[in-house]
Amino acid sequence: MYSLQENHKVLDPPSRWTCNFCGKAFVSEYFLDRHFENRHMDQIQTDDAICLADVCDIFRCDIISGASHPDYWDIALCMEDDMEELFAQCKTIVEDCVPSGPSKNETDIVKSQGMENLCSFLTCSKFWNTPYQQEENSHTALYIVLTTMTCFGIVVYNFVFYNYFYSDLVETNYDVTPKPKHKIKKFNPDIAYGDSTRLRLSAD
């Protein structure tokens, strides 16, 4: 990888690039890279250097960083044959990156972890997943449970509060028998019809 070369680049805004090996400055990063090749070839790795951008499809750099999100066609047009090819490349990279010094058990553990954390996502069903998606889903479920329990607790509290403070008052002071608003008086025809009506009834 080019990590050694990149770590010896110093950017002074807006466009001053300085070599951290010798202190020479350039107007662009391009000329600084050429300077490394011409003056510091013995201090940078070039023979088997790997640029991570060349394997971003395998390591899913844009997906993990959040720079890329799938749409309908990305998922619908995914082909398992392409995923199998990426999986084979990923397996080769993992095997090449494991050093030969440790014991077989140790190398097997490193390989299995690399396959699980990198290569296992190279399928159409898991390609767009992130390593933190499961954790986010668990947090969402926790929020739902806590919200439900909080609402239930509020309902229970209100029910107990009402029964404790108001149930006795209702039972002792409230009479459920309906009462009229006005007192009903006994019917009196003299008052209701007056004297003229009473005289007419007598004449008849």
Automatic annotation (TrEMBL):
<feature type="domain" description="C2H2-type">
    <location>
        <begin position="17"/>
        <end position="45"/>
    </location>
</feature>
<dbReference type="GO" id="GO:0008270">
    <property type="term" value="F:zinc ion binding"/>
</dbReference>
<dbReference type="InterPro" id="IPR013087">
    <property type="entry name" value="Znf_C2H2_type"/>
</dbReference>
<keyword id="KW-0479">Metal-binding</keyword>
<keyword id="KW-0862">Zinc</keyword>
<feature type="transmembrane region" description="Helical">
    <location>
        <begin position="141"/>
        <end position="165"/>
    </location>
</feature>
<keyword id="KW-0812">Transmembrane</keyword>
<protein>
    <submittedName>
        <fullName>Uncharacterized protein LOC106072376 isoform X3</fullName>
    </submittedName>
</protein>
<keyword id="KW-0472">Membrane</keyword>
<keyword id="KW-1133">Transmembrane helix</keyword>
<keyword id="KW-0863">Zinc-finger</keyword>
